[in-house]
Amino acid sequence: MRALRSALAVVGTALVVVLSLAALPWLRGEDPAVTVFRALYAERARDPAVVEALRRQLDLPDGPVAGAWQWLTRAVHGDLGTSWVDRRPVAPEVLRALGVSAGLAGAAVAVAVVVAALLLVPATARAVRRGRPPGRWAAGLPTVLAAVPEVVLGVVLLGVAAVRLRWFPTSGWGTPGQVVLPALALGLPAGGLLARVLGTTVEGALAEPWVRSARVNGTGPAAVTTSVLRRAAAVAAPQLALLGVGVLGSAVAVEQLFAVPGAGRTALRAVLSLDLPLLQGCVLALVLLGLLAGLVGGLVHRWLLRPALGAGDLVAPVPAAAPRTVVPVVAAGALLLVVAAGLLRGGGRVALDERLAPPSWSHPLGADAVGRDVLARFAAGALLTVGTGLAVTALAAVLALLVAATARDTRPGVADVLNALPGVLVGVVLVAVTGPGLAPAALGVLAVAWVPLAVHARSLVVQGLAGAPVRAAVLSGAGRVQVLRSHVLPGVVGPLLRHAAARVPSASLTLASLSFLGLGAATDSPEWGAMLAAGLPYLERAPWVAAAPVVGLLLLGVVAGTATAPRRR
Amino acid sequence: MIELHGVHRAYRPRRGVVVRALDGVDLALPADRHLALVGSSGAGKSTLLRVLLGLEPADAGTVHVLGRPVVPGSARELRWLRRAVGVVAQDAGSSLDPRWPVGRSVAEPLALLDVPGDHTARVRHVLAAVGIDPGAADRRPAAFSGGQRQRIALARALAHRPALLVADEPLSGADAVLRARLLELLTGSGTQLLLVTHDLAPAGALGGDVAVLAGGRVVEHGPAADVLGAPVAAETVRLRDAVLRLPA
Hints:
- The complex is a heterodimer.
- By secondary structure, chain A is mostly helical.
- Chain A has helices spanning 2-22, 24-27, 32-41, 48-57, 64-76, 90-130, 136-146, 150-164, 176-206, 209-216, 221-258, 263-272, 276-311, 327-344, 374-405, 414-418, 423-434, 438-465, 468-474, 480-516, 528-535, 543-562.
- In chain A, helix 6 (90-130) packs antiparallel against helix 11 (221-258) and helix 8 (150-164) crosses helix 11.
- Chain B has helices spanning 45-52, 79-84, 102-112, 119-129, 146-158, 176-187, 201-206, 224-229, 234-245, and strands spanning 2-11, 19-29, 35-38, 60-65, 68-69, 85-88, 164-168, 192-197, 209-214, 217-223.
- In chain B, strand 4 and strand 5 (68-69) form a beta hairpin.
- In chain B, helix 3 (102-112) crosses helix 4 (119-129) and helix 4 crosses helix 5.
- Chain B is globular, with a radius of gyration of 18 Å.
- In chain B, 45% of the residues are buried.
């Protein structure tokens, strides 16, 4: 029954996604033949005869239903149509690009796992040896690392390791040297995020009674550490699969930066040249890859937790009290002060004689490429960036909690299908339909931002449902809703909010990536992503232009990561 | 009070493996006698409890409590059963939610089952009855010792005045003093008891009937004095001899 429900949810969601993908050329609300005409001849006056000729040449069906049907029937046979731009078959191109992206994502996940292990294993071993929760730095370092924007890290690596030190090639794909920098740019922040999610679970596991009993019974620290990490890995297994997909998504900007010919860069090229068949092919390939990753994660999770889930003998997640620090207050205060100072300065005027002026008394953070005060723009962009990122993440957390509350087990559901749709990519597709803008970009981010939160929350809910207090409540007449409300969700909200907070910068950054790629906020907007993009060409000559949004997003990440410690109980 | 007829329950933990946890259990418990259900590990005690409490279905046979058939269902459908039966779980201490003040945990069944009357007063009363200072009701489980937590869990199971109290291994893991205290609290609660245990020692102290479970069947059932004094089934003899072999 449950297996059937799960299967129906997966098939239904996949069907909706695939159908809207199949009908993509019609979702713009205009005749695809006209779209092709514009793609080929840009602004030239529309010639009906040429449009009709294009329709015949490309064999374009009459409506979205016929079009979706044709695309689907051909896709089943491995034919993804022909490119609207160069008239070549799409499938081989997609396959090649997907191979590149999978290679990059694999390398990045490997980096992430190594980084997370380096951050967590010593801290956990020390905590087990001392019998105390891990220190504050154990949570702080992953937070900071997770908040580093991939694009910025990529640019720094590019500037330092490739341009200045000449250790690695600046661009391209194929040699091992070309893999290193993009993999690091993607893997380091992902490793920080992984360590953060795992760290929360490690803290919870360390507070469980069996850890103390094992220690007192003389079990060696190494064995206890292994058990604690195994327990954490069980909860985080679905996360690891998600991480790979997330990496596929943030890879678009990094692939663009290092000129790696992967699926992300191909999709971006497709959307910019309105080559919708190519876009359809890339998205389909990534959907299938993501679905596979989600299934694997769910299976690993079930496999690791299975004995405990069966017997219902898991201890309820104990809320772990995080050490109180002044870090978030200081960081938020600093950010607020700078923003307030910037807001007081009013709007930045264009002053071409002050182009790229370095920081001085009149321009404390320097001036940008047209001589506008960076501080003033930074402040104006703060409201836009933080506001949008926060709103998107808050909505995503609510959505995730609602979805997780309906979970009975960790069988794949709606969320696992949507895993396959990284934020940047959904944004790219939405923009292909609506045209660029902050609102479609934010919608694209929201459409996927709830998914990792939902998967995490679902693991916690299933664990909580297996706990002793829940069994006692059921035997006292509690129904599912009451059990969830009183015993399960209180243990979920804390970690979920911390996870969500850790994702505010990443939501802001996905938006920023879209702006960076020219698909989100207008290039001239003070939105930090757009500002960052505008500053990147001057990273060597005038680093202060990009430094302001970089520091801003970093501070935001620190605040979000450290300010949401669960209340001490 | 309780009637089980020909109850079967089998598990298939892996393909091709069938575990017959209950293999035709017949058991009747009149409304005025305590019952100690004794059996070694794997005899089917836990499965019997789960079927009796409507947590899982019987493959065959019938289960009645207070004359009503027990069939797994929603919380609403099983409300009458929850009202009739209080349960002290095997891991009683950890069944208290670590986030809640213990008073709230004790009051939980009262709220869930819409028990009329002053809940706060009732919580104070039952806590005092198990020897816990009612003034400590606002503390969390971590503030209590293991033995105290077990007694609080007992208070919780008794809070809504059930007709039958089911206690699953309530004495395991308790020291001799606590065992005596818990047994005294259980028998003095004024509630009919179904005590599930793996050794015969508490069965005699209960002073009611004893039913011995082995291999998913009830192999012996009768007044405690008879069963302990002149056991018939091989399993009962084994369990009794195990008690006798213990150093005094």
